[in-house]
Every structure is written in C-alpha cells, then in structure tokens.
User: Fold these one by one.
Assistant:
Number 1:
Amino acid sequence: MIHAPSWRVLATSLFLVVGAGQATAKDVPASRGPGQAAIASANFLATNAGFEVLAKGGNAFDAAVAVSSTLAVVEQQSSGIGGGFMALLHKASDGRNVFIDARETAPKAVDMKVYVGKDGKPNRDVSTNGPLSAGIPGEPAGLAWMAEHYGKLPLSASLAPAIRIAKEGFQPDARFIGTIEDRKDVLARYPASAAIYLPDGRVPAQGWTLRQPDLATTLERLAVKGADGFYKGETATLLVSASRVAGGNWTAADLEAYRVKEREPLTVDYKGYRIVTAPPPSSGGVAIAEVLNILSGFDLTKLDLAHSTHLTIEAMRRAFRDHNEYLGDPDFVKMPLDMLLSKYYADGLRATISPDKATPSDLLPTAMSADPGMHTTHFSVIDADGNMVASTLTVNLEFGSGFVAKGTGVVLNDEMDDFALVPGQPNAFGLRGALANAPEPGKRMLSSMSPSFVFGADRTAVIGSPGGSTIITQVLEGILAFIDGKSASQITAQKRYHHQYLPDRVDVEAGAFDEATAKTLTDMGHVLKNRSPWGFMNVVTWDHRTNALDAATDPRRPSGLGKVGTVKSVP
Ligand code: GLY
C-alpha cells in the first residue's frame, strides 16, 4: 500500500519553525507504518538481537535496547554500558520526536589540574586512559528509561540476547581484534582488562571465543532491578571500589545521582525537507542546522562539484567555529541558540563567503579547535508501525579508558577527554569557548553525536555515524545525499570530506574528488589532506510511495562480517 506522511499536515505546521529552531515535538505528523522493519547496525549479532525482540512483540524502542546492549557485548571497543548514548525517537502513534540524552557526567570530585601536564599542556594519558578519564556512565540508565517509557516489553526481555551472548560467547571479528592490538599497552596496565582481552598475555588470534560471565551478571542485575541494578547495590559498589583502587575519584553518590534527560530535538527545514536532530549537549545538531541554513541561500544544483563543495566547506568552517565557541551542557551554560539557529544569522555568515575563495580560518573571530576522534557506533531502526530510532553510542576512544572494573566486566569510558580540560591551550584567545565546555561536577561533556531523522513528502531517513568531530560532517553529507535522492547504500558508500575550522584544512577520503575538482579547490585556497578511516555509517530509509524500507551499513567495514543492515517482515 502506498502511504506518505501527511505533507499537508506538515505544511500547515511549517509556520512554527523559522529556519532552524527548537520546534515543538508535535510538528512532525504521525503516519501509518511500513508493515515491516529495518535495522542497520555495526554488527550482525546486534541487528539480529533487534529482530529477535521485534519478533517477540517489541517495538523499535525495545529493539533499540536489544541492539544497544548487544553492541555493548560484541562491539565493546565502540560503546558499552560503561559509556553513554544519545538517541532520537519517533513515536508513530502521535508523531512525537524525543531526544534521549544518556550522556556521561563528570564526577563530583573532578579536578581539572590532574589533566594538565607539567608543561601546561593536556596530559592525554590521564584524560584518555584509566579511571580518571571516565565519566559516570549513562547507557544503563538510558536503556532502562527507553524500555520503561517507550517499549512494549520488560527491560529483561530486551536485554536477554545480550546476556545470552555474553554468557555463551561469540567470535570477535577482525575489527574487534584490531582494536585490541591498538590499545594493548593500555589494556595490559589493568589486570581485569588484560584478563578479558589479552588471554595468555597476548592479543588473541581470529577464531577466539570471548565469554564474559561478569558482564552477563552485571547485565542481569540491570535486567532485574532496572537502573538501580547498576547505579546502586553490588554493581555500583564494585565500580566505585575498583575505580578508586586504580586511582579514580568516583563515589557511590556520583552513581546514585546520575539521571537521564529528555530534551527537545532541534528541527531545521531545508529544501522541502524537515531534519530533526540532536540538541546540546551535542554540538552536532546545531552545527548541521547552521550549515543547512547557510546553504539554503545557494542553489547547489546549479554549481559544479568544486564550487558546491567549496560553499559547503565554508559553511562547515563557520559552523564549527561557533561549535567551539559557544556550546556545552545546557543545564550548566547559557547558549545563544536562538541566534545560532536563526535564518538572519545564517544570512550574515553567508554574506562573508566568497564564491570562489577559501576564507582562512584565522580571519574569522577566534575560537578553540575541536579534537577529533574516530570511534563510537551508530544504529538506525524503523519498525512495522513506523516507530523510529536513531541512536549513537560511545565509550569515546577504542575500549574507552581501557579500564575494566574488576568483577563487573564493564569497560569504563574515557569521555572526560571530550571536555575542554585545558582552557586556552590551543589558542590563547579561545578561553570563552573552552569555558562553555569546561568540566564541572555533574556536567555533561560536549558531544558530536548527531542521530538524525530526515522527513520528506515521499521519503524518510534515519541516519547517524560514529567518527568524533567528523560525525557532524558525515551526517550532514548523508542528509544532503538523501535530499539529492540517493539510496541508503549510496549514502553510506558516498566518499566524504570534512572541515572543522581548525586545523584549517579539508580532510578528504580517497576518491571524493576527481583531479580537476581537487585542483579547483586547491586554487581557491583550500588545503586538501587525505584522511582515513571514516565513520561506520548505518542508514535506514523508508520510501512512502512504495512503502519500501532500505537498510545499509558502511561498505568501509572489513568484509566477512555478515549482512548487518537488514530489512525483514515482522508480523
Ligand atoms: N566521544 C565522542 C563524542 O561524543 O562526540
């Protein structure tokens, strides 16, 4: 049956939004479902777990709990219950969009001095390795919240696949083993980490079966008692004592105080599409909205690739400058979002762009530079009723802090490095920007995670990507490709580029530009630099004209992982 979301309903609500803004949650119409489901994640075991829960009568939100918790077992280098996530939910029954902020928080005893070396520069060893690099995890509370408020099944049913796989074991893929190799020196520092990831003191060979009874028990406590099963009682005691023995500063009160936040998503209208995306403490949605508002004043379709790319790079440059300058945790800092998201502000920024000359970043008002990382994971779900989830999850760098709290099987994140820990360091005039994202007890560190929906008259996309600061530009380019009519697999395969204000260069994936385009961009003053790797993007699309779903995962992943983005009929 052909079904489109009621564009007339959507059109009558457009007056609610001027350019980009914090739209009311009600202004995306409810719709009938596609009658089947699609899931795209970074691992086939996680995708299968989502379908297992859908087959038991769960909805997209239950599936999201199953996918997230299974990723926490089978792709724990990228995310886990020692980390956090940001998820965008679309409820088909009333058309409501909700943003779940399960981002980590700084512990009460956070002390910026420990992250500064004797030379006054950031001490990256402390901010990225070991328990002092870990924020208070948000993922367990976020999963419990999603099950309780949006799911149809009990939390225990949605966690069952993850618990089973943790107990029975699975064979880690080449990517998992490669990241153990990358982080082996740090994992070797902590006995509970080495016991899991370096059996016999070595990086395991492929074919190795990883069984995690401690992690299964920790997940079981969460399944039985909900968030209290993680943030109070035995798990909490083990987390705090292991962390403190290894030099960390968490207390039981930090864990007990952790709360999930529901926030209003950001909404931006662009070329007849409505993009719903992540608000602060993600910087991603603000930056994506700013870029789209700037680009809405150009007709990119009339330009050659070099000139349309040039304008997009210039819009990225300006959006990232603001990202660095203004953004932080909305519960702690006042941000000029009305200004950043307004059409008038975008008009002003657009007027500073030369049609054929790069603006050196140091000619723009100064701000701090963002620090890119390449980890994290994203999955996308649409269920048979049209409920949707875009969820990006992270422990920050590969295996987060590298520190497993003994007896829990939980790898703690190293998300403290996402705070501006040493204000003024990269740039003496960037102090104000750093302050918005300076650590404070209980504060959430700024994230780039940008789970997004794109609603059009004929098609809808659920999209997101890992990739540190490149998350934002990868998701932006995916959104633009979808609006250009590309399919899910064309979007994930599309070659990518990235500019983040500082360093003042364009990171380019091999094959993104032909020789002539690269030369034109260079002649305009852009510095092009080859970059690899790029984020593992997972996209689901829904064509309302044919009611067809399409799921695609990133073709950049190593081969042999099975089909991880799948569409299935679910009764
Ligand atoms: N840790 C990556 C991010 O949140 O952006």
Number 2:
Amino acid sequence: MNYENLLVQNEDGIVILTVNREKALNALNTQTMLELKHFFTEDAPKIEGLKGIIITGAGEKAFVAGADIKEFLQLDAEKGREMAARGHEVFFAIERFPKPVIAAVNGFALGGGCELAMACHLRIAGEKARFGQPEVNLGIIPGYGGTQRLVHYIGRTKAMELLMTADMIDAQQALDLGLVNHVVAAGEEVTKAKELLQKIAGKGPVAIQKVIECVNACFEDGVNGFDYEVKAFGETTATEDFKEGAAAFIKKRKPNFKGK
Ligand code: DAK
C-alpha cells in the first residue's frame, strides 16, 4: 500500500512509523486509521527480521493531537458506533502485535493520540510531551479504548479525574502515574525507543511474543491470565530457543536465538 499519512522507515529491522500530518498536529483522520490498520495487519507481519516498531509523530509539536475533530461533524449515533468499532480493531491489532511496539511521544498525545500511545506496549515521553483525554470538552467520550486502558495504566482514581476534567498532564506526571516508561530530553524519544528495542532483540523472540500475549490476557474479558500463562510457559519450553538459551547459560556464552 502507498501511504498518504504514514512514513515507514526500516532501519535494520527497527521500523519507525511516523504519523505524518504535521499541519493538523498529526490528528487521526479516517485515512490515517485505515493506513494504520493496513500496516499492522498486512504489511508489518511480512517484514523480514523485524525487531519492533516505533510510532511517533511528525514535527516537534505533536505525537498525535487526537482523532480528527473536523471529521466528527458528520457523525450520528450509528456512524459513531461504527467508527469506534473500527478504531478498536486498529488499536487491538497494535496491542496484540507479536513484536514490541513503542510509542515515542514527542509532543501532544491527546484524545485518540493518548489512546494510540496506550495501545503500544511501551511509551517513551520527551520532556515536552503532554497527555490527556479532552473529549468531554467536545461533549463526547473517548472512543478508541481510552476509558479502559487509562484505568489499567494509572488506576481508577486518577483516570476518573483526567477523563472528567479533560486536564492535561506533563511527561513527569505521566511517569509518576505509571503511564510512561521513561522521560527523555526532547528529540531523544526515538533514540531511547531504539535502545530498548535493541535490548529486547537479544532475547528469545517466542518468549517476547508470549510475554505480550500473557500481559494482554490479564485484561481480556473471559480469559484467565494465570491459565494462559501456564499454557504459554509450556509452549516456550518446547522451543529450540529454550534449548539454546539454557545451553548458552551453562556454557557461559551469548545465546543465538532463532525464534523457533
Ligand atoms: N483534529 C483536527 N485538527 C486538529 C486537531 C484535531 N484533534 N488538533 C489540532 N488540529 C489542527 C488545528 O485545527 C490547527 O489547524 P488550522 O487551524 O491551522 O487549519 C492546527 O492543527 C494547529 O492547531 P492549533 O492552532 O490549535 O495549535 P495550538 O498550539 O494553538 O494548540 C492544541 C495545540 C493541541 C492544544 C490544540 O490544537 C487542541 O486543543 N487540539 C485539539 C485537542 C483535542 O481536543 N484532542 C482530542 C480530540 S477528540 C470516537 C473515536 C475517537 C475519539 C472519540 C470518539 N468514536 C469512535 C465515536 C477520540 C476523540 C478525540 O481524540
């Protein structure tokens, strides 16, 4: 697919995916959502030697300033429900992606932008990053999972406050609340994300995939995460990677994992 609103750069297996609508502060319009879905469901799974994906926003001001408000005017109850359901598919595809996905948050991450960052497995915030769910300012609620994932990350008390007041929090507050993994100097977000992906790339790939699945299972309706872990643990012990990891430990050498 030729992307209009996404830039895709593959640097030795680390893919940097930039939402590229700088004039609209990278707001997620319908086209961008379709492209994100296509990337995560069709293109990314076929990338040879993929170590992980970093999502960031074009320019210095915004990661993603939300869903595109200018498209909201055409919504009614039916279209709103359809739009939310389509959005959930996209964000679940990111959350369930078998390789690590990191949000490099370089500025405003508001509304759908905060929701996009929360669908990623890890979040790096630059010092200028600002997070918030300001939908109630518009008389709507988050529609891409924000009422659920924000509670998972920062707890019910603070999530309820942010969702009802529409207040923004800065990078340090996001770190203190457990919303982001690291805060770095502005402009260093992608570098830090690459460093984490390089570290993770040295681990057993099947084990990393199973970690993602098990952590997600913790929040899946009708799934017992402990049972899921038992099954996934069994599966990892049957891999060639486990034999290689154990042999390397005993022989005091670095493992050479094959992802099998
Ligand atoms: N959508 C469309 N355009 C946006 C935008 C957005 N979310 N945010 C900014 N822009 C555009 C502005 O309109 C402006 O365009 P021009 O006027 O130059 O054409 C340009 O980006 C620069 O923005 P500003 O001039 O406003 O820049 P400032 O530095 O003054 O302010 C700001 C930056 C981020 C504080 C401000 O732009 C702002 O408050 N933006 C809106 C933030 C916001 O409310 N975000 C949440 C949007 S609601 C659902 C699914 C999803 C959602 C809801 C329902 N369903 C399925 C039903 C999610 C909702 C949201 O995300």
